[in-house]
Amino acid sequence: MSLDTLREQLPDYAKDIKLNLGNLASDQSLSEQQKWGTFLSCALAGRNLDVIKAIAAEAEDKLTPEAFRAAKAAAGIMAMNNVYYRFGHEVANDVYKTLPAKLRMTIIGNPGVEKVDFELWALAVSSINGCFMCVNAHEDVVRKGGLTTEQIQTSVRIAAVVQAASAIVGGEAALAS
After folding, report:
1. Is 42 a catalytic residue?
2. Which of these is catalytic: 77, 122, 128, 134?
3. Region 73-101: what's the mean pLDDT?
4. pTM for this model (two decimals)
């Protein structure tokens, strides 16, 4: 399955999502690695098999094996970190904010791609997962890494549209069963 096939699969009421997927796929504010790593990590975070397959097929031609692996790693590590750090932010008892995480997360320090790209993917996934602390931390790193406000916004736009596509495709499948 390709991104075009995914777009065709979206129902008429999701025309905006279909158009946004196409526009973002051709966006040039991010490098190809940044863009397709964001698409892939966000598809994995959205957990919809059809969306993952379509975006992975598209990204496979545009990412090196190392970048493909790093985008998968960003989705995985943020699935863990977003839960942990969101809890620390949301819980009323401040003692949890003072405790060490005691979670292994060495992939963040050595992702196998440029640090700013990995951090951008972590930011986009954190936006999907709703972790305020992680969004702010990763946004700060990518800004300091030289990315512009427009580039950061584009990554979050990709996250929003891929998440919407995942919800729509999953919802339609559930309604059809």
Report:
1. no
2. 134
3. 94
4. 0.95
Which tens digits make up the pLDDT trace of 24-34?
Answer: 999 999 999 99
Indicate the number of domains in the chain. Answer: 1
**Domain extent at residue 19:** 3-176
Residues in the chain: 177
Residues whose CB falls within 8 Å of the CB of residue 1, separated by 6 or more in sequence, listed in order: 50, 53, 54, 57
**Is residue 116 within 8 Å of residue 166, measured between CB atoms?**
no
Does residue 1 have a pLDDT over 90?
no
Per the annotation, the verdict on 131 as an active-site residue is: yes
Round to whole Å and give the CA distance between 26 and 28. 6
Query: At 72, which CATH number?
Result: 1.20.1290.10
Q: What's the burial of 95, exposed, middle or buried (CB within 10 Å: 0-12/13-18/19+)?
A: exposed
Which structure tokens are listed for 21? 């997927």
